[in-house]
Amino acid sequence: MRRSVGLTVLATALAVVVSSCGSGVIDKSTDGVPPAEATGTLRVLLPSFPPSNEGRQQFQKVIDDFHKAYPKMKVEPDFATYNNLNEKMSTSIAAGYPYDVMVTGVGWIQPFASKRIFADLGDFGLTPDVIREKSLAALIPAVTYDGRMYGYPLLADTRAVALRKSAFIEAGLDPEKPPTSLADIKIAAEKLTKRDSKGNITRSGFDLASSSGFRQSFTTFLASTGTPLYVGGEPNFDNQAGLDTLLWIKSMINNVQPYGQVNAAQQPLVYSGEAAMGIVGGAVDCSTGGKGIGQKNCDDLKFFRFNSGKEIEYMGGDLASIGSRSRHKQAAWSFIQSLTKPDTLDAMAKLNRKLPAYKDAANSPQAKSNPLSKFVAEGLDKAANENEVPPNWLEMRGNFDIQLTQAVLGQKDPAKVLHNLAGQSR
Amino acid sequence: MSTTLERPALATSRKGEVAKDKGTLTRSQVRTGWTLLAPALLHSGIFIVIPVIAVLALSLTDYSFGDTWSWVGFGNYTELFRDVDFLASLWHTVLYALVVIPISMAISLAVAIGLNQKIRGIGFFRTAFYIPTVTATVAVATIWLWIYNPGSGLANGFLSLFGFAPNRWLADPGTALGSLMVVGIWQGLGTKIIIYLAALQGVSRDLLESADIDGASRWQKFRNVTLPALGPVQFFVLITSIVGTFQVFDLVYVMTRGGPGSETRVLVLDIYQNAFQDLKLGYASAETVIMMIVIAVFIGVGRLLQRADTND
């Protein structure tokens, strides 16, 4: 008798544990329920708000706006970073408790959409025309998979090139006529590179901003020749343009810049004068003190774009999606609408030093706040990125970083590397 | 002359039950035993047995967090042995273990012997050697990143005093893995030193004094008295070192992320990359199974060596 009582208690305890770990915490669906009556928790994963006081305050404003439509629903944010985004998404899926709203970047949509982890936003009326009308057309390929829309652009993360006028003048080059083609950049970079008596580079001629891998820079350089990395999910780099681009990178590394060069502040080297020219992000802080580089430094910079046949600037971005297993899809869409209010996007742009992904981004407060943001905002129509990536892009990202590095460092034959990457992409 | 031991009286339970023979316990004893074991069994079941079974099952699938998956048999395993990243990771891990384990064990033993002497400030030295072990690996890695910084790092600064050209340490394919090994050796010393120190204090003083009386040199005493006495501890340190080095991850993740290229890519990093970045959980599970087998092989070899050493 006592034994059976003990077993019953144990079984009950286990049942409680299992139910609380399992589906017991998953809400009932609110889809179809009037918003004012919907209850439950909306789980939101996003790298667009830093978990600082300022970030949390801005996020609270989004929640407040969302609560106007869904007053009874709780919002549970997870302030991720791009480094741990995949871990968070995959573990939540494996646990059977996926997020309702997920904000990812360019290159994430296709792999997750192909696994049916993201919901088709066409169900909420999202079409390419809607994005063209309200957001940035350049990000349409980034949110499209198999002809359907799986994400809504929030922010644009752009890259340009900067040169230091003083370094150009010192080297006898005209800073008003920046070199834009790969060939001209190499010639100028070699003139701008400074070395000590032992031949060690003391100032890089060109910062490729590729300390963690050459995937993004290769994509950018290749796009500037008019060759997108992928077309319709098919590789477009296993060709002469791809090989020339990779060989150009190889000819630059340890010639005009030591491999792996990065400064402690993790800022573009051209800002600190450690490089005379190089790739920069989408914003520069010209203030003096703190993280600012100072007005004098700012005045010494000139921004331009790559153009080896096609003028381009690299563009990534923050893209909002809805989980296909979400039990609150309508609420999630409402939350995305709160996220995409212009004021919210402006706040997010400022927090992340990116541009708001709305139609008139060139006139946004962020674009007007510093010369680099102004410059990249004016070139949003020249945006380029990996383009229409294949479903296995998440795997290919790592493959690109490893294998391009091996080619650049002379460990593998560049042509074979590109051929191999093309094979892996299919 | 013989001694007869009387058999103790059989245990009697609360209800008057009598245990019948050797190895036979009363019901209440059995119940108590299982009750005491239950937390450990529950823990092992949830956190070891179930995950191991899950990994074995997942390794036979192509599960990638999506809605659909299918059985692929041993497909993941055959694919792994054609995967250059996996093979590179396996080789780097084995190499890392083969270098780090013996060097760190030898240094730890030497330091422990030093700390076992009656010297001034012994408490300070013991603390100093143990600090790296209790310091978070991320903090350790961050400091070593600065030490290895090609431009302003301590390593190049120190070497420049002797006229050496600056090295790119973690950015150079030729030195990256070696640089990580140095950190791994340094970080693992503390625990091993403490274990050796405890064992050294248990070495029979009688035997050491006998060896002194017999005129044995320091080396002879160490070789013939101290070292054999440390046998079981050596085995323990070896096993924990094998497991620890094969599971190296955080150090590599923070310092190099497996680069340059794949020069410092190790098994756990590759598993992490496949599982949580590439979302190939089935494939990563197969890799995990292989890692478990490799660790088991290494432990088996260590055990054989230990037995051979004991038989000597």
What is the molecular shape of chain A?
globular
Number of strands of chain B: 0
Q: Which pair of protein chains has the largest interface, and what are the residue counts?
A: A-B, 34 and 33 residues
Q: Supply the number of helical segments of chain A.
A: 18
Mean model confidence by pLDDT of chain A: 91
The oligomeric state is: heterodimer
**Tally of distinct domains of chain B:** 2
What is the CATH third-level topology name of the largest domain in chain B?
Answer: MetI-like fold
- CATH architecture annotation of the largest domain in chain B: Orthogonal Bundle
The N- to C-terminal Cα distance of chain A equals 64 Å
CATH topology value of the largest domain in chain A = D-Maltodextrin-Binding Protein, domain 2
- What would the average pLDDT of chain B be, to the nearest integer? 87
Task: Find the structural class of chain B using helix and strand composition.
Answer: mainly alpha
CATH class of the largest domain in chain B: Mainly Alpha
Radius of gyration of chain A: 24 Å
DSSP helix fraction of chain B = 55-70%
The N- and C-terminal alpha carbons of chain B lie at a distance of 35 Å
Summarize the structure.
The complex is a heterodimer of chains A (426) and B (312). Chain A has 426 residues and is an alpha+beta fold. Chain A has helices at residues 2-21, 53-69, 85-94, 109-114, 128-134, 140-143, 165-170, 182-192, 215-223, 240-252, 269-272, 295-299, 329-339, 342-352, 365-369, 371-378, 393-408, 414-425, and strands spanning 40-46, 73-79, 101-105, 144-145, 148-149, 152-158, 160-164, 194-195, 201-203, 230-231, 234-235, 277-280, 301-304, 306-307, 311-322, 355-356, 383-384.
